[in-house]
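REVIEWER CHECKLIST
Item 1: Sequence provided? yes
Item 2: Single chain? yes
Item 3: Sequence as submitted:
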Amino acid sequence: MPLPADAIVQVLLRERLRVTALAATVARDAHTADDIFQQVVLSALESAAHFNDTAHVVTWALRAARHRAIDFARAKQLRPLPDEVLDLLEAPGDDFGGVWTDRGEALHQCLGRLTPSARTLLQLKYGDGLTAPAIAARLRRSADAVYQSLSRVHRALRECVQARLGVELPTAEAEGEAAT
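Item 4: Structure as written out by the authors:
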């Protein structure tokens, strides 16, 4: 018996972070990943008669997001990730749920509240994989200014996530001290 549409939507919303993360990893663009997730939800609802259990919905959604993100990456002439990496991203794993899903959702919301210049900086650093000196050259700023800006953005994101979750997250400095 096929799953009802509301059950499919619930599963996809529960797995939103995972599906979006896979798409963002391949497409290297958070906004595109969100668009891909929305397309996957619509396609899933159109194909609702084919889903008999929630595991099938998740597997299908990950595969659909993967293919849509690969199409986007090809169109942007981005170097593709090896199939082995993509297979690992799709592989069934531990259900992190709870704190990881909450933290990821909080981070996603906080990223959406950043200024356009802060989002551009993060896109250049993490989406395009540029180094701080390369970003500095592109933005016609000093490397020190880029490092300082990245530090401020990281701090703002950490504080925003902490506020949304109501918990204190460890800082990079505190994690480094704990390791020594």
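Item 5: Key structural point noted by reviewer: Confidence is low (pLDDT under 50) at residues 94-99, 172-180.
Item 6: Recommendation: ____
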